[in-house]
From TrEMBL, chains A, B, C, D:
Residues 23-83 form the HTH tetR-type domain. InterPro entries: Homeodomain-like_sf, HTH-type_TetR-like_transc_reg, HTH_TetR, TetR_C_15. SUPFAM superfamilies: Homeodomain-like. It comes from Myxococcus landrumensis. This is TetR/AcrR family transcriptional regulator.
Amino acid sequence: MRKTARGSSRSGTRKQPSQTRSKALVDALIQTTARVLLRDGWQALTTNRIARDAGVSVGSLYQYFPNKEALLLALVERLADEMTARLMEVGAALRDASVAEGIVTIVRAALDVSRRDAPLYRAVLVELPRQGALELFERVNRRLADALTEWLVDRRDELDVVDPSLTAHVLVTSLDALTDHALLFHPELLESPRFERELHALVSGYLGVRRPARARRSVNGRSRP
Amino acid sequence: MRKTARGSSRSGTRKQPSQTRSKALVDALIQTTARVLLRDGWQALTTNRIARDAGVSVGSLYQYFPNKEALLLALVERLADEMTARLMEVGAALRDASVAEGIVTIVRAALDVSRRDAPLYRAVLVELPRQGALELFERVNRRLADALTEWLVDRRDELDVVDPSLTAHVLVTSLDALTDHALLFHPELLESPRFERELHALVSGYLGVRRPARARRSVNGRSRP
Amino acid sequence: MRKTARGSSRSGTRKQPSQTRSKALVDALIQTTARVLLRDGWQALTTNRIARDAGVSVGSLYQYFPNKEALLLALVERLADEMTARLMEVGAALRDASVAEGIVTIVRAALDVSRRDAPLYRAVLVELPRQGALELFERVNRRLADALTEWLVDRRDELDVVDPSLTAHVLVTSLDALTDHALLFHPELLESPRFERELHALVSGYLGVRRPARARRSVNGRSRP
Amino acid sequence: MRKTARGSSRSGTRKQPSQTRSKALVDALIQTTARVLLRDGWQALTTNRIARDAGVSVGSLYQYFPNKEALLLALVERLADEMTARLMEVGAALRDASVAEGIVTIVRAALDVSRRDAPLYRAVLVELPRQGALELFERVNRRLADALTEWLVDRRDELDVVDPSLTAHVLVTSLDALTDHALLFHPELLESPRFERELHALVSGYLGVRRPARARRSVNGRSRP
DNA sequence: AATGAATGAGGATTCATTCAT
DNA sequence: AATGAATGAATCCTCATTCAT
């Protein structure tokens, strides 16, 4: 029967790669998927091509992924996991940060996450049409928002924040949306200090942290008289 | 031959639909494309299906569009044009608006544009994997940014703005990114006053306009009467 | 979606071949299916092979048959139709036949139907694993049984028949089963007078028509003293 | 490689399962084959599935069966063997049976054999497309025919039989064909006394044994006391 | 200009079979 | 002997595109 996938879970791997060998195979397949996507784009991304490039047979691919979609999802999942891991560090760094330091940390984190694996992340955002992928990235943001909320609560006195949870959400969403947007349409911005400065200003302004007028450009400077 | 288009121009209509009949046909095809995309999704969006639903033959479709991609692009183009038209009105309304009024206008415009044709816009964002489409939407933003730049220049005295063009760009990008993001992941936000309020706060803060009510502890704000 | 056939009827042709051209194509495909099945057997019966041998593209095949199964069913249907047509003639010939003539007619009909297209019929019986096919052949038998029932009723006085309908059914089923069996395991029997004679004896005996003892072999002879 | 078996003997087990363990394994595989065929049909009948359900590895399956076909054949063989065993008893019972008893015995035997394992037997008949299988069942019939021939010869005086061997063959073939047919198309008949009565009438008529009760108008029958 | 039947390369997926461990 | 991961040829079916009418 060609028509219906009879695999078990329909999304997710077909069998838990407990053995080392299997793990390596799954890894190779996901990485090859990324590579092919980057090198030759969406239309070159066929299961046969992936398998061949990964140095295995199609049969092996289907031993570990019930169908093509599952493989794609695994790629996205992996990307999301890496982002989450990096954001966990940000959360830790945030704990003892002053307001000024915190803002810098957050802005920098947003940029870093986008910069890292930027081309792949971009390809995934642009080329993969699937819904499920987007939800995974949402989860990543939720993680960061939680860490940020905590930080905002701790600095309630110094900041113009009424609802920390909402504010955190808006901040994360904004930064995510802005960096994603930059990644898609103005990749060069991700490397531009000017862009970082503007993000800084946006966050500062939103949080009610004003630097002296006419001195906006000194991001991190001690206020001049 | 599937992958390689041997048609002439590769993007844009194959012939200018000068006759009324042709124009109507092109319209019907684009609208049908939208309808099919909305009703049955990306997978159902085949040229044969579109032609049939539009009441014409595939041959006719290919008389006016060199290939499928061109048809998709035409749909996106039409959407972008409608947005631009609406933003032109915003630009006009902006001319004589005070700072406070302007901010409201801009925020509202961003939301309105996303809300209008939200399902179709969403479908296009989520389902169409093509690169070209995104660039079209960029053009729309550029239009708004220009109008906004002018407005910022005129109100230079009242605002904490050094580089109006850059500020306009960041504002437009932010709002666009935020509303797109909301459209994709939290459609309900587009209808929520809370979301509008936060966008408002973001813009105000970024422009250095403090709203007194909320300024529990305005670090450096000069409260205005 | 590759998995589910989205064709309309799932069994039967995808579109009514109203045009002459289409009819010819459908015919060619069915005949080619038969030819391939006969020449190279079940495993050679792939859609691509059939299309190629029929001198058309696979695409065309799928224009007229929603899937492989439908094509196979069409072949069986055609065979069943031809049998039915031939049996209609038998029904007519039966009307005015005497008891003795009728028995000869029926036995001969059973053999004729099996002999005609015997190899194809055999291939279909042996090789096509599908259920639906079998039901079609059942319909054919029902037709013959009806004609036979009428005949039995008309000759009630001369025959040892209590329930004509049941008797007709048993007769038809027996003859069908016996000839099918012969077709499958002893094809040579279909051409053997001996076999015909035995069928004759079976039917005669079942109907209570006894020929003089020790003279059983004279099938059609006028009884000798 | 799918189509071409490169195994040694092509039919029959690869090695004689001399050890108990091996015997058990072969048994398990055949039984599992039957179970899968019954539960999930022809399509689910893959070697991997069979092995898994039987609790062994595919490798082990191929240790004892050179290819899939051999396994299927073994299943059919087992079924045929069981039938043969049962028919041996019939042959014994026949020895001392009177004409009337013998007819009852034979008819009943035909029905019994079909009824036993009816679902599996049916599945094998309907679903297994292989040629070889059918020949096995032929062997079974030959066995019964031999026993029947002997019986006919012994009762030559009481019966209107010229060629016992041929008559036996026709009888066995008829009964087999009729019960198989019933199994496939009217399974309920196998349990119906009416059907048994008709088979009885068929055999009696064929053998020239008239039942007085029904002989409303026996054309030429010599009524026996 | 319009039609829509025809095309056919290409894609996802299966499964009998092998062979290194 | 047993395992089961790996193989890959082969299958069914799709759909963008063409072109004879």
